[in-house]
Amino acid sequence: MTPTIFLPTTQINQSINASTAQDHLLCFAAPSIMEKKKKEEQTKPLAASFSPSVAEEAATAGPDCPTTRRRGRRLLRCFLCFATAVAVAGLVILILSLTLLRAKNPTLSMTSLSIARIGVVVQPLSVNATLDAGIAIRNPNMASFLFGNSTTYFYYGGERVGVAYAAAGRVRARRSATVAMRVDVLVDRVATRLDLAVDFLAGADLRLASRTEIPGRINVMGLYKRDVEMELNCSMLMVISLARQEIRSTDCTATVR
């Protein structure tokens, strides 16, 4: 037979009162706990929407994203700036090539021609003259012009009577340089011709001709290079007589090819 345990009346009343108080506390706290759970359930979707993974997906969502549109506008501006710079540079080069950098042919001219010395022997008739000549080369380009060794031939009556040589040189940009030369004109090579004897005794003019050949090279800042051949053809009247010796006039024509 199981023994029966009898609790005091005061202890039973205390346990009943404690349980009743706990039930009343749960009844009052239940609404606040329910509201707290509802708030947590409402905030969870919002937190998920701002999570890093969702933000990255939104940034790479497509062309409608503001970040993508800003990036596209920056790329377009960079491309337009680059294209504008290339166009301006090309236009500047074109203008310079048509104006300042345009290669032009140099020009030649006979600046001086004089008789330095003349020797005359009457019998047998012999006439030798030493002439000093100056040829100017003008360079109209923006770069220096280089020319090679030059040769000048003198003719009388269609026959060569003298040759002069000059060394190579350089003409600075938009400047002129003078090539000086001295030549012995051996007119006695054709002294047996009757017209020379008559011209000398009567004091008439002797018509001489000259031809100067000068090679050169045009090089405009390495952008334009061209070899040229310059030629200067002149005719002159030289007076030789017992009384005077002089050169009256000179007529020259220059060609560049």
Folded structure, characterized:
This protein has 257 residues and is of the alpha+beta class. Helices cover 35% and strands 41% of the residues. It contains 4 helices and 10 strands; from the N terminus they run αααβββββββαβββ. It has helices spanning 9-49, 52-59, 66-98, 194-202; strands at 107-121, 126-138, 145-147, 150-156, 159-166, 169-171, 176-186, 205-220, 224-240, 245-256. Strands 3, 4, 5, 6, 8, 9 and 10 form a 7-stranded antiparallel β-sheet that branches. Strands 1-2-7 form a 3-stranded antiparallel β-sheet, with no helix packed on it. It is rod-shaped and about 145 Å long. It starts with 8 loop residues before the first helix and ends with a strand. Residues 4-9, 24-28 and 45-52 have low confidence and may be disordered. One of its GO terms (biological process) is defense response to other organism. Residues 136-234 form the Late embryogenesis abundant protein LEA-2 subgroup domain. The chain crosses the membrane at residues 79-101. Its main location: membrane. This is Late embryogenesis abundant protein LEA-2 subgroup domain-containing protein.
